[in-house]
Amino acid sequence: MSDVEKVKKLRVATGAGFKDCNLAIKEANGDLDKAVEILRVKGISKASKKMSREAKEGVVAISGDEKKTSIIEVNCETDFVAKNDDFIDFVKELSELNNQNDSNLESLKKAKMKNGSSVEDNLVALIAKIGEKITIGQTKTISNSSSTNYQYLHTVVKDNLAKLAVIVSLETNENSETVKTFGKQLSMHIAASNPLALESTLIDKAIIDKEQELITEELKNSGKPEDIAKKISLGKMNKFKEENALMTQAWVMEPKKKVQDVLKELAVNGLKIKEFSRIKIGE
Questions:
Q1: Which of 95, 140, 155, 267 has the fewest CB atoms nearer than 10 Å to its CB?
Q2: Where are the domains of the chain?
Q3: Fold observed for domain 57-197+265-280
Q4: pLDDT single digits (tens) 51-61
């Protein structure tokens, strides 16, 4: 990627001007992730997302039922291959085996497919036939005896294969239409809002520490007195946690409410969000 292309990409992601993006890329020696951090520290950009993740294609597949549901990501190099019949057939069968093996990758690789060969051997054969690197990415199985799982597929490629997939588990003894509607809407909310964890206390410490570091550096360059900077830093961190924890996110269907408010308003006895999984190709 040329420097001009990097500048364009950085401008789209951060909203910063051409000159600022150009200087940031030069200072970062072409590293887009570092350039984003430089712009944030200088107070020019609010963006914090990763820029240089390897561009991946492929599909995410969901298998199972409402009591035990599994999700698996399979990556390839081009979207053309992601729509190839051989690739799709392999992923569909792989998805079922993944559910049977509770997303245990080592067991999955050794599992036998319909042709009698292992997943590992079939993967090698598929790579040889198609001529592209194909890898198994993230996997997750959600199974709770007292819960019901709901799912959502976005940008469906075929049947149970998509570019983005979500599973969310609701703990409840009730099987009403109200609960079913909430389960479906909640899975769509997770797809759109990409929460990092169920609650703020469960967000990965490394992510929190990195955000705190960026905010601290940003405020150092603002020239504000230390006591005021501390208050601003606390406010920014609280906002970051609120916006990235599922329970405190603004409800996509009605943004003036938080997810926890909607859950409470449903007034369904014992209804709880147990856990969730969201996988998107390229993230």
A1: 267
A2: 3-41, 57-197+265-280
A3: Tetrahydropterin Synthase; Chain A (3.30.479)
A4: 444 448 999 99
Q: What separation in angstroms does the CA of 105 have from each of 99, 137, 139, 230, 236? A: 11, 10, 8, 45, 38
> Mind listing the pLDDT tens digit for each residue in 145-198?
889 999 999 999 999 999 999 999 999 888 899 999 999 999 999 999 999 999
DSSP state of 272: E
Query: How far, in Å, are 13, 194, 206, 256 from residue 40 at the CA level?
Result: 12, 21, 18, 28
The amino acid occupying position 114 is K
How far out from the chain centre does Cα 69 lie? 17
Strand partners, 75: 58, 135
- Residue 44, pLDDT score: 67
Among 69, 82, 267, 76, smallest CA distance to 149 is for 69
User: How far from 248 is each of 136, 212, 245, CA to CA, in Å?
Assistant: 32, 19, 6
Asked if residues 222 and 249 have their Cβ atoms less than 8 Å apart, the reply is no
Token pair of 169, please? 């588990």
CA dihedral sign of residues 148, 146, 170, 91: negative
